[in-house]
User: What shape does this take?
Amino acid sequence: EAQVTQNPRYLITVTGKKLTVTCSQNMNHEYMSWYRQDPGLGLRQIYYSMNVEVTDKGDVPEGYKVSRKEKRNFPLILESPSPNQTSLYFCASSLRDRAIYEQYFGPGTRLTVT
Amino acid sequence: SQELEQSPQSLIVQEGKNLTINCTSSKTLYGLYWYKQKYGEGLIFLMMLQKGGEEKSHEKITAKLDEKKQQSSLHITASQPSHAGIYLCGADPTSGSARQLTFGSGTQLTVLP
Assistant: This one.
């Protein structure tokens, strides 16, 4: 089954404790992206990757890191999480940049930073 | 940067009623995309509009893009509980390169049985 998987689905952590949210897709997609969703602000892009070893900042990259060492995986790293990073995070992928509108979204990771 | 305003922010309708959700841009839209999200789940792509005056339908959902390409509406006919969720409009802000999507804040739709 074609899908985007994220882990963990729920995470409660404390300020400053490094964490990684994994994202994996099994569709051989070139393009992958991370979004955060906050009430009243909609979806905002954090980082995106056009292909392996090619990443770029989205609208709200501060406080986040990403890497794309393999085509299927695109982990999101929070080196020192803060409470303002409490949010619902989505990973997405699509075949290529021209097909962004057909992004497949993962189920989301709900992160709480206390 | 491109800003998308959605209205209303939330909507509660009785099953069987029609409803409309609007998405307005501060700039010309080069591509407008409608998504649906169920609570706690990822987004599902519904429709894409690119040409001024374009209209597309899927089952009981119709989306339109105005001639000036700055406003889109999503219309649901004879709503059902399965239509409940968050509807988001997304736009391509970079004149066709489609490298990023900007999203509206979403409209929470509740359909009462």
